[in-house]
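Reading a protein record of the kind used here takes only a little practice. Think of the row as the fold of the chain written in a discrete alphabet. With that in mind, consider the following protein and its fold in token form:
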Amino acid sequence: MRDSAGAALYLAWKVTPAERKRLCDALRTGERQHLFRLRAWSVAGLQARVLLTPEAPLEEIVEALWVGDSEPTAGRWVRRGAACAELTRQMETAPVP
């Protein structure tokens, strides 16, 4: 189920070292199960950032990505095109905290 506007969903978390691997596994599994398509993602230090295109109901995506006690610290819809490309560039070039 893709959103009608083709927008992407941006999420950010603070994660513990123990949660990092579980979140990476959840991202790979969610994409493999066609819950979403990963556009960009970064899990480094104590921060995780994800830009994805939903392919399932948001409730299923949230359930798949909820790891441990971590909760997203940011979330927003991003328009496709230039806005997605710019956010992807920022995520890929940001220094590791």
